[in-house]
Design goal:
FAD/NAD(P)-binding domain, alpha/beta, binds flavin-adenine dinucleotide, 4-stranded mixed beta sheet, elongated, 2 domains, 347 residues
Length: 347
Protein backbone atom coordinates (compact mmCIF):
# COMPACT_ATOMS: atom_id res chain seq x y z
CA UNK A 1 0.00 0.00 0.00
CA UNK A 2 1.32 3.43 -0.99
CA UNK A 3 2.12 6.32 1.34
CA UNK A 4 -0.92 8.28 0.20
CA UNK A 5 -3.40 5.45 0.64
CA UNK A 6 -6.82 6.81 1.53
CA UNK A 7 -9.55 5.28 3.71
CA UNK A 8 -13.21 5.87 2.85
CA UNK A 9 -16.30 4.68 4.73
CA UNK A 10 -19.73 4.90 3.14
CA UNK A 11 -23.10 3.11 2.88
CA UNK A 12 -22.79 1.80 -0.67
CA UNK A 13 -19.58 1.35 -2.65
CA UNK A 14 -20.32 1.49 -6.37
CA UNK A 15 -17.71 -0.07 -8.64
CA UNK A 16 -18.12 1.59 -12.05
CA UNK A 17 -19.21 5.17 -12.70
CA UNK A 18 -21.07 4.45 -15.94
CA UNK A 19 -24.69 5.60 -16.36
CA UNK A 20 -26.02 2.76 -14.22
CA UNK A 21 -23.62 3.35 -11.32
CA UNK A 22 -24.41 7.08 -11.47
CA UNK A 23 -28.17 6.56 -11.39
CA UNK A 24 -27.80 4.14 -8.48
CA UNK A 25 -26.52 7.12 -6.44
CA UNK A 26 -29.86 8.85 -7.04
CA UNK A 27 -32.01 5.90 -6.03
CA UNK A 28 -29.82 5.20 -2.99
CA UNK A 29 -29.96 8.90 -2.07
CA UNK A 30 -33.75 8.84 -1.99
CA UNK A 31 -33.38 6.14 0.68
CA UNK A 32 -30.80 8.27 2.54
CA UNK A 33 -27.86 6.03 1.65
CA UNK A 34 -24.50 7.62 0.86
CA UNK A 35 -22.52 6.33 -2.10
CA UNK A 36 -18.92 6.33 -3.23
CA UNK A 37 -18.05 5.50 -6.84
CA UNK A 38 -14.82 3.92 -8.10
CA UNK A 39 -13.77 3.97 -11.77
CA UNK A 40 -10.52 3.24 -13.53
CA UNK A 41 -11.33 5.91 -16.11
CA UNK A 42 -10.37 9.49 -15.26
CA UNK A 43 -13.95 10.69 -15.75
CA UNK A 44 -17.47 9.40 -15.01
CA UNK A 45 -19.84 8.15 -17.71
CA UNK A 46 -18.49 4.70 -18.65
CA UNK A 47 -19.03 3.70 -22.27
CA UNK A 48 -21.02 6.87 -22.97
CA UNK A 49 -18.10 9.18 -22.24
CA UNK A 50 -15.34 6.88 -23.39
CA UNK A 51 -16.78 5.42 -26.60
CA UNK A 52 -19.60 7.60 -27.92
CA UNK A 53 -20.01 10.99 -26.20
CA UNK A 54 -21.23 12.72 -29.38
CA UNK A 55 -23.72 10.03 -30.47
CA UNK A 56 -27.43 10.63 -29.91
CA UNK A 57 -29.32 8.01 -27.86
CA UNK A 58 -33.00 7.60 -28.72
CA UNK A 59 -34.31 5.13 -26.13
CA UNK A 60 -34.02 7.00 -22.85
CA UNK A 61 -37.59 7.51 -21.63
CA UNK A 62 -38.64 11.16 -21.87
CA UNK A 63 -35.78 12.12 -24.20
CA UNK A 64 -36.64 11.81 -27.90
CA UNK A 65 -32.88 12.22 -28.44
CA UNK A 66 -30.00 12.96 -26.11
CA UNK A 67 -26.25 13.00 -26.73
CA UNK A 68 -24.49 10.37 -24.64
CA UNK A 69 -22.20 13.03 -23.14
CA UNK A 70 -25.21 15.18 -22.30
CA UNK A 71 -26.99 12.29 -20.57
CA UNK A 72 -23.92 11.81 -18.35
CA UNK A 73 -23.87 15.55 -17.50
CA UNK A 74 -27.58 15.36 -16.60
CA UNK A 75 -27.06 12.28 -14.43
CA UNK A 76 -24.23 14.06 -12.60
CA UNK A 77 -26.53 17.03 -12.00
CA UNK A 78 -29.34 14.76 -10.82
CA UNK A 79 -27.15 13.07 -8.19
CA UNK A 80 -25.47 16.28 -6.98
CA UNK A 81 -27.80 16.68 -3.94
CA UNK A 82 -26.64 13.30 -2.68
CA UNK A 83 -22.97 14.33 -2.66
CA UNK A 84 -21.39 11.11 -3.91
CA UNK A 85 -17.69 10.56 -3.45
CA UNK A 86 -15.48 9.56 -6.38
CA UNK A 87 -12.27 7.57 -6.62
CA UNK A 88 -11.34 8.04 -10.30
CA UNK A 89 -8.40 6.71 -12.27
CA UNK A 90 -8.14 3.68 -9.96
CA UNK A 91 -9.10 0.07 -10.56
CA UNK A 92 -11.03 -1.84 -7.89
CA UNK A 93 -8.69 -4.76 -7.34
CA UNK A 94 -9.80 -6.56 -4.16
CA UNK A 95 -13.24 -7.26 -2.67
CA UNK A 96 -13.15 -8.88 0.75
CA UNK A 97 -15.43 -9.27 3.74
CA UNK A 98 -14.28 -7.85 7.06
CA UNK A 99 -14.83 -9.46 10.44
CA UNK A 100 -17.58 -6.89 11.17
CA UNK A 101 -19.53 -8.11 8.12
CA UNK A 102 -18.85 -5.03 6.01
CA UNK A 103 -17.12 -5.18 2.63
CA UNK A 104 -13.75 -3.73 1.83
CA UNK A 105 -12.80 -2.71 -1.71
CA UNK A 106 -9.14 -1.88 -2.33
CA UNK A 107 -7.88 -0.23 -5.52
CA UNK A 108 -4.63 -0.69 -7.43
CA UNK A 109 -3.43 2.52 -5.76
CA UNK A 110 -4.21 1.27 -2.27
CA UNK A 111 -7.34 3.32 -1.60
CA UNK A 112 -9.51 1.40 0.89
CA UNK A 113 -13.31 1.69 0.76
CA UNK A 114 -15.51 0.13 3.45
CA UNK A 115 -19.31 -0.26 3.36
CA UNK A 116 -22.05 -2.73 4.26
CA UNK A 117 -23.25 -2.89 0.63
CA UNK A 118 -21.46 -3.02 -2.72
CA UNK A 119 -22.95 -2.42 -6.17
CA UNK A 120 -20.88 -3.78 -9.01
CA UNK A 121 -21.74 -1.62 -12.03
CA UNK A 122 -18.60 -2.47 -13.97
CA UNK A 123 -20.23 -2.69 -17.40
CA UNK A 124 -18.09 -4.69 -19.76
CA UNK A 125 -15.26 -4.44 -17.26
CA UNK A 126 -12.49 -1.93 -16.93
CA UNK A 127 -11.28 -0.34 -20.13
CA UNK A 128 -7.68 -1.08 -20.99
CA UNK A 129 -5.86 0.32 -24.02
CA UNK A 130 -5.23 -1.98 -26.97
CA UNK A 131 -1.46 -2.08 -27.33
CA UNK A 132 0.49 -2.73 -30.51
CA UNK A 133 2.60 -5.91 -30.43
CA UNK A 134 6.00 -4.23 -30.05
CA UNK A 135 8.24 -6.21 -27.72
CA UNK A 136 9.95 -3.36 -25.85
CA UNK A 137 6.98 -0.96 -25.71
CA UNK A 138 6.86 -1.27 -21.92
CA UNK A 139 10.31 0.38 -21.71
CA UNK A 140 8.85 3.64 -23.04
CA UNK A 141 5.56 3.75 -21.10
CA UNK A 142 4.93 5.90 -17.99
CA UNK A 143 6.23 9.21 -19.22
CA UNK A 144 9.07 7.96 -21.41
CA UNK A 145 7.40 8.69 -24.73
CA UNK A 146 4.60 6.17 -25.28
CA UNK A 147 1.05 6.96 -24.16
CA UNK A 148 -2.27 5.26 -24.90
CA UNK A 149 -4.52 8.18 -23.92
CA UNK A 150 -4.09 11.89 -24.39
CA UNK A 151 -4.61 13.03 -20.81
CA UNK A 152 -3.17 16.51 -21.21
CA UNK A 153 -2.78 17.88 -24.77
CA UNK A 154 -0.40 20.55 -23.39
CA UNK A 155 2.25 17.84 -23.00
CA UNK A 156 2.63 17.70 -26.77
CA UNK A 157 3.02 21.40 -27.51
CA UNK A 158 6.18 21.95 -29.56
CA UNK A 159 6.99 18.22 -29.53
CA UNK A 160 7.36 15.72 -32.37
CA UNK A 161 4.47 13.26 -32.23
CA UNK A 162 3.68 10.04 -34.10
CA UNK A 163 0.06 8.86 -33.77
CA UNK A 164 -1.06 5.41 -34.94
CA UNK A 165 -4.64 4.30 -35.56
CA UNK A 166 -7.57 4.73 -37.92
CA UNK A 167 -10.53 5.36 -35.61
CA UNK A 168 -12.07 8.51 -34.19
CA UNK A 169 -9.64 8.89 -31.37
CA UNK A 170 -6.58 8.79 -33.70
CA UNK A 171 -8.24 11.19 -36.17
CA UNK A 172 -9.54 13.63 -33.55
CA UNK A 173 -6.19 13.90 -31.79
CA UNK A 174 -4.36 14.27 -35.11
CA UNK A 175 -6.61 17.22 -35.96
CA UNK A 176 -6.25 18.75 -32.50
CA UNK A 177 -2.51 18.25 -32.13
CA UNK A 178 -1.72 19.36 -35.71
CA UNK A 179 -1.67 22.93 -34.36
CA UNK A 180 0.18 22.12 -31.14
CA UNK A 181 2.92 19.69 -32.12
CA UNK A 182 6.20 20.70 -33.77
CA UNK A 183 5.70 17.83 -36.23
CA UNK A 184 2.89 15.32 -36.44
CA UNK A 185 2.77 12.01 -38.29
CA UNK A 186 -0.30 9.78 -38.52
CA UNK A 187 0.39 6.14 -39.34
CA UNK A 188 -2.48 3.83 -40.29
CA UNK A 189 -2.22 0.24 -41.38
CA UNK A 190 -4.97 0.52 -44.04
CA UNK A 191 -5.88 3.17 -46.57
CA UNK A 192 -9.49 3.57 -45.34
CA UNK A 193 -10.33 5.02 -41.95
CA UNK A 194 -12.99 3.85 -39.51
CA UNK A 195 -13.65 7.28 -38.03
CA UNK A 196 -16.27 9.91 -38.82
CA UNK A 197 -16.19 10.94 -42.52
CA UNK A 198 -15.76 14.66 -41.77
CA UNK A 199 -12.75 13.88 -39.54
CA UNK A 200 -11.22 11.76 -42.31
CA UNK A 201 -11.79 14.67 -44.67
CA UNK A 202 -10.07 17.11 -42.27
CA UNK A 203 -7.07 14.84 -41.78
CA UNK A 204 -6.63 14.44 -45.55
CA UNK A 205 -6.85 18.21 -45.97
CA UNK A 206 -4.16 18.71 -43.28
CA UNK A 207 -1.95 16.25 -45.14
CA UNK A 208 -2.52 18.03 -48.48
CA UNK A 209 -1.56 21.33 -46.86
CA UNK A 210 1.61 19.70 -45.54
CA UNK A 211 0.63 20.43 -41.92
CA UNK A 212 0.83 16.76 -41.00
CA UNK A 213 2.49 13.74 -42.53
CA UNK A 214 0.02 10.95 -43.33
CA UNK A 215 1.40 7.44 -43.90
CA UNK A 216 -1.18 4.79 -44.76
CA UNK A 217 -0.71 1.06 -45.38
CA UNK A 218 2.03 1.13 -42.77
CA UNK A 219 2.60 0.22 -39.13
CA UNK A 220 4.93 1.27 -36.37
CA UNK A 221 6.89 -1.91 -35.69
CA UNK A 222 9.84 -0.77 -33.58
CA UNK A 223 10.81 1.76 -30.90
CA UNK A 224 14.25 2.90 -29.86
CA UNK A 225 15.92 5.47 -27.66
CA UNK A 226 18.24 5.79 -24.74
CA UNK A 227 16.01 5.56 -21.65
CA UNK A 228 13.43 7.67 -23.46
CA UNK A 229 11.77 7.29 -26.85
CA UNK A 230 13.84 8.88 -29.65
CA UNK A 231 12.64 7.20 -32.81
CA UNK A 232 10.12 4.78 -34.29
CA UNK A 233 10.51 2.26 -37.07
CA UNK A 234 7.71 2.40 -39.60
CA UNK A 235 7.10 -0.59 -41.84
CA UNK A 236 5.31 0.26 -45.08
CA UNK A 237 3.44 -2.56 -46.85
CA UNK A 238 5.24 -2.01 -50.15
CA UNK A 239 8.04 0.55 -49.57
CA UNK A 240 9.83 -1.29 -46.76
CA UNK A 241 10.92 -0.02 -43.35
CA UNK A 242 12.31 3.35 -42.34
CA UNK A 243 13.00 5.26 -39.13
CA UNK A 244 11.50 8.54 -37.96
CA UNK A 245 12.73 10.71 -35.08
CA UNK A 246 10.03 11.52 -32.55
CA UNK A 247 9.48 12.55 -28.95
CA UNK A 248 6.16 10.76 -28.53
CA UNK A 249 4.36 7.74 -29.93
CA UNK A 250 0.60 7.57 -29.32
CA UNK A 251 -0.94 4.26 -30.42
CA UNK A 252 -4.66 5.16 -30.27
CA UNK A 253 -6.23 1.81 -31.13
CA UNK A 254 -9.14 2.19 -28.76
CA UNK A 255 -9.86 0.57 -25.46
CA UNK A 256 -10.94 -2.98 -24.87
CA UNK A 257 -12.98 -3.86 -21.82
CA UNK A 258 -11.68 -6.59 -19.54
CA UNK A 259 -13.78 -8.06 -16.72
CA UNK A 260 -10.45 -8.11 -14.91
CA UNK A 261 -10.36 -8.38 -11.13
CA UNK A 262 -14.18 -8.67 -10.87
CA UNK A 263 -13.80 -12.20 -12.22
CA UNK A 264 -11.69 -13.21 -9.23
CA UNK A 265 -13.96 -12.22 -6.35
CA UNK A 266 -15.84 -15.48 -5.92
CA UNK A 267 -18.91 -14.23 -7.76
CA UNK A 268 -20.98 -16.71 -9.70
CA UNK A 269 -20.26 -16.01 -13.36
CA UNK A 270 -22.05 -16.99 -16.52
CA UNK A 271 -20.69 -16.20 -19.99
CA UNK A 272 -18.32 -13.60 -18.56
CA UNK A 273 -21.07 -11.75 -16.64
CA UNK A 274 -22.24 -11.89 -13.02
CA UNK A 275 -25.26 -14.11 -12.41
CA UNK A 276 -27.94 -12.31 -10.38
CA UNK A 277 -31.33 -12.91 -8.82
CA UNK A 278 -33.85 -10.70 -10.62
CA UNK A 279 -35.77 -10.07 -7.38
CA UNK A 280 -33.15 -7.49 -6.36
CA UNK A 281 -30.09 -8.08 -8.60
CA UNK A 282 -28.24 -9.62 -5.68
CA UNK A 283 -25.25 -11.87 -6.34
CA UNK A 284 -24.17 -15.00 -4.48
CA UNK A 285 -22.24 -12.77 -2.03
CA UNK A 286 -24.46 -11.24 0.68
CA UNK A 287 -24.73 -7.46 0.39
CA UNK A 288 -23.13 -7.46 -3.06
CA UNK A 289 -25.36 -6.54 -6.02
CA UNK A 290 -24.55 -6.42 -9.75
CA UNK A 291 -26.37 -3.96 -12.03
CA UNK A 292 -26.10 -2.84 -15.65
CA UNK A 293 -24.11 -4.49 -18.43
CA UNK A 294 -22.01 -6.50 -15.97
CA UNK A 295 -24.84 -8.81 -14.88
CA UNK A 296 -26.77 -11.56 -16.57
CA UNK A 297 -30.12 -13.30 -16.04
CA UNK A 298 -32.72 -14.89 -18.30
CA UNK A 299 -33.94 -12.21 -20.70
CA UNK A 300 -31.09 -9.75 -19.97
CA UNK A 301 -30.77 -6.79 -22.34
CA UNK A 302 -27.70 -4.58 -22.21
CA UNK A 303 -29.56 -1.27 -22.27
CA UNK A 304 -29.17 1.83 -20.13
CA UNK A 305 -32.84 1.90 -19.25
CA UNK A 306 -32.74 -1.71 -18.01
CA UNK A 307 -29.72 -0.84 -15.85
CA UNK A 308 -31.67 2.06 -14.31
CA UNK A 309 -34.45 -0.34 -13.31
CA UNK A 310 -31.95 -2.81 -11.86
CA UNK A 311 -30.29 -0.05 -9.80
CA UNK A 312 -33.68 0.98 -8.40
CA UNK A 313 -34.63 -2.50 -7.23
CA UNK A 314 -31.16 -3.25 -5.86
CA UNK A 315 -31.44 -0.15 -3.62
CA UNK A 316 -34.53 -1.57 -1.93
CA UNK A 317 -32.58 -4.60 -0.69
CA UNK A 318 -29.40 -2.61 -0.04
CA UNK A 319 -31.45 -0.45 2.36
CA UNK A 320 -32.08 -3.50 4.52
CA UNK A 321 -28.38 -4.36 4.50
CA UNK A 322 -27.36 -0.80 5.41
CA UNK A 323 -30.16 -0.27 7.96
CA UNK A 324 -30.80 -3.66 9.58
CA UNK A 325 -34.20 -3.85 11.27
CA UNK A 326 -35.39 -0.52 9.81
CA UNK A 327 -38.62 -0.45 7.87
CA UNK A 328 -38.65 1.09 4.40
CA UNK A 329 -41.81 2.79 3.21
CA UNK A 330 -42.21 3.51 -0.46
CA UNK A 331 -42.79 7.15 -1.45
CA UNK A 332 -43.00 8.99 -4.78
CA UNK A 333 -40.57 11.85 -5.46
CA UNK A 334 -43.62 13.96 -6.38
CA UNK A 335 -44.59 13.63 -2.72
CA UNK A 336 -41.20 13.87 -1.01
CA UNK A 337 -39.30 16.12 -3.40
CA UNK A 338 -35.54 15.77 -3.33
CA UNK A 339 -34.05 16.00 0.10
CA UNK A 340 -30.29 15.99 -0.37
CA UNK A 341 -27.78 14.52 2.03
CA UNK A 342 -25.83 16.88 4.30
CA UNK A 343 -22.11 17.49 3.86
CA UNK A 344 -20.28 14.73 5.64
CA UNK A 345 -18.54 15.82 8.84
CA UNK A 346 -15.01 14.44 8.88
CA UNK A 347 -14.56 11.73 11.49
C1 LIG B 1 -21.49 2.58 -29.61
C2 LIG B 1 -22.52 2.21 -28.56
C3 LIG B 1 -23.82 2.67 -28.69
C4 LIG B 1 -24.78 2.35 -27.71
N1 LIG B 1 -26.06 2.83 -27.85
C5 LIG B 1 -26.97 2.59 -26.87
C6 LIG B 1 -28.32 3.11 -26.97
O1 LIG B 1 -28.68 3.78 -27.94
N2 LIG B 1 -29.17 2.85 -25.93
C7 LIG B 1 -28.83 2.10 -24.84
O2 LIG B 1 -29.64 1.91 -23.93
N3 LIG B 1 -27.57 1.57 -24.75
C8 LIG B 1 -26.64 1.79 -25.73
N4 LIG B 1 -25.40 1.24 -25.63
C9 LIG B 1 -25.10 0.38 -24.47
C10 LIG B 1 -24.85 1.22 -23.23
O3 LIG B 1 -23.75 2.10 -23.46
C11 LIG B 1 -24.54 0.31 -22.04
O4 LIG B 1 -25.68 -0.49 -21.79
C12 LIG B 1 -24.24 1.15 -20.80
O5 LIG B 1 -23.05 1.89 -20.97
C13 LIG B 1 -24.10 0.25 -19.57
O6 LIG B 1 -23.84 1.07 -18.46
P1 LIG B 1 -23.06 0.53 -17.19
O7 LIG B 1 -23.08 1.67 -16.23
O8 LIG B 1 -23.64 -0.77 -16.80
O9 LIG B 1 -21.59 0.20 -17.70
P2 LIG B 1 -20.47 1.05 -18.47
O10 LIG B 1 -21.01 2.20 -19.18
O11 LIG B 1 -19.71 0.03 -19.24
O12 LIG B 1 -19.55 1.59 -17.28
C14 LIG B 1 -18.85 0.69 -16.47
C15 LIG B 1 -17.69 1.40 -15.84
O13 LIG B 1 -17.09 0.53 -14.86
C16 LIG B 1 -15.70 0.72 -14.86
N5 LIG B 1 -15.06 -0.45 -14.27
C17 LIG B 1 -15.23 -1.75 -14.58
N6 LIG B 1 -14.49 -2.56 -13.81
C18 LIG B 1 -13.84 -1.74 -12.95
C19 LIG B 1 -12.92 -1.96 -11.89
N7 LIG B 1 -12.53 -3.20 -11.52
N8 LIG B 1 -12.44 -0.89 -11.23
C20 LIG B 1 -12.81 0.38 -11.58
N9 LIG B 1 -13.67 0.64 -12.57
C21 LIG B 1 -14.20 -0.40 -13.25
C22 LIG B 1 -15.38 0.95 -16.33
O14 LIG B 1 -14.16 1.66 -16.47
C23 LIG B 1 -16.60 1.76 -16.80
O15 LIG B 1 -16.37 3.15 -16.74
C24 LIG B 1 -24.43 1.54 -26.60
C25 LIG B 1 -23.12 1.07 -26.48
C26 LIG B 1 -22.17 1.39 -27.44
C27 LIG B 1 -20.77 0.88 -27.29
Amino acid sequence: MGMNAKYIETDVIIIGAGPVGLFAVFEAGLLKMRCHLIDILPQPGGQLTEIYPKKPIYDIPGYPSVLAGELVQNLLKQIEPFRPGFTLGERAEVLERQADGRWRVITDRGTVHVAPAVFIAGGLGSFEPRKPPIGNIGDYENGRGVAYYVRNPEDYRGQRVVIAGGGDSALDWTIYLADEAAALTLVHRRSEFRGAPDSVEKVQELARQGRIRLITNAQVVGLSGNGRLERVTIQHDTDGAFEADTDYFLPLFGLTPKLGPIGEWGLQLQDGAIAVNTYDYSTNLPGVFAIGDVNTYPGKLKLILCGFHEATLACQSAFKVVNPGKKLSFKYTTVTGIEGLPVETPA
